[in-house]
Amino acid sequence: MVSPIKSIGFKDLLLLGLLAIFITVIGVLYPYGSYPELWGGYFYKAINYQWFLFIVASVFLFRNQFSKLIKKELSYQEVWVVSVISGVFIIWVAYYTSYYTSYIIGAISFSFVLYLSILLIYNKRKKSFKLEEKKEKYANQKIDEETANKLINEIDAVLRTEALYRNSNLTLVQLAKKLHMRPHIISQVVNDHLKTNFPLFINSYRIDEAKQRLQTSPNLKMEIIAEECGFNSTSTFYAAFKKLEQTTPAKYAKSQLIKTPDV
């Protein structure tokens, strides 16, 4: 699955805008000074419940990142996301239970979460810099077989778990940034140890998924398979399939039907 971490889009801004307008209208129609009981009762509950629903929605949206937390496989950006969501939840709990404790708990929780987030991000960035230095040592020397295999496994794991190859515009630089490697390191491993080039290397993952789709859904249109597997066009898909499999997608799908006849 592709990571949901992305830049803010129009729909996000529209949602924030509608919420801001709604809150402003409520504040104008029912000012706190005139309706303290309303704000202390229904509005207080509505705000807390809405807040909690957004937290739940955020956890669901970034569930893959939270699962990685157990395995300690989070990237720098993912650490930031998990820290923010976890911190907001802690602050929500503090304010929600403040009726039974004190509102000062909310302020203390906010300060604690802020400092903890800064500490986590600093620690993660420090580890990332060390990893970058470790990769740098391969810049001017040939990579031995054992090291190359480790790097290949690391590249393969990221490509498969995050399905980065589905991005039709995936570049060597983008993949290198994701792996915290120098682009020429990936290029060297692919060229010297896999005996191929980067475009063909990425296309091999796309073709593997296309073959699976052709086996499970032989009646699916080639245009759809090509697009969902990361190809810019059907012609590019056909050319890559022919080069790697020495046959066409249609013939491959037909051969799979012959191998597995209906019972």
TrEMBL record:
Keywords: DNA-binding, Membrane, Transcription, Transcription regulation, Transmembrane, Transmembrane helix
Gene Ontology molecular function: DNA-binding transcription factor activity; sequence-specific DNA binding
Keyword Membrane found: yes
Entry-linked SUPFAM superfamilies: Homeodomain-like (SSF46689)
Domain of life: Bacteria
Classification via InterPro entries: Homeodomain-like_sf (IPR009057), HTH_AraC (IPR018060), HTH_AraC-typ_CS (IPR018062)
Residues spanning the membrane: 12-30, 42-62, 74-95, 101-122
Domain annotation HTH araC/xylS-type: ranges: 149-255
Identification of the protein by name: HTH araC/xylS-type domain-containing protein
Species annotation: Zhouia amylolytica AD3
